[in-house]
Amino acid sequence: NLTANGTLIVLAVALVVAFFAISQFVSAASIEKPVPLAKVEMRDGKLHATVKRSVRAPTGIVWEVMTDHPAYADVADNISKVEVLSGDGLGMKRRCYGPKGENWVETCDLHEPGHAYGFRVHTEAEDYPYPFAELSGRWSVERHPVGSEFRIEIVASVKGNTLSRWLFSTMAGPRFKTVLIDLADAWAERMEHEAGKERTARSLNRAV
User: Fold this and answer.
1) Model-wide pTM > 0.85
2) What domain range is 55 assigned to?
């Protein structure tokens, strides 16, 4: 039989083991990669694709990354280059290039500094390369317990007859969802990288 002291020692060891086990579990949970929440649905003949993603970065940094238009090509798989043509904020025009050099112009039709912005693609242009009748996007950021949460919403409708629209609604949904999830993850990685650089800079400044 264990003595009273022996029992206390065993109990103390068990508590230490439990403490480290819980600490490891909490640490693992804290570094678990957030999963983007994506949804695609048809409403009023238009495809609405949205994704939300939490990110360990303050809203200011998230906004800076979201509005770095030339760098958008670094995180969007379907974009090879972005040029700002004119303006800044509401009314700004930018030209986006696809993987094969195809390009189109977009105009900023929503701009709430630090919170949200939107672009409308000029699908009516004669040289527009894709069969969309309408295509627009909205990007926004809010505070979140882990730092921030950003949201992307794409609204699209396709040219053509009823069959074309039906095929689009059936086949495009999964593709839009995949593109948005990949974009959200790539953006989040950049945002958290920038947030880490800022934290390091602050630490160095305090140490000086």
Assistant:
1) no
2) 34-207
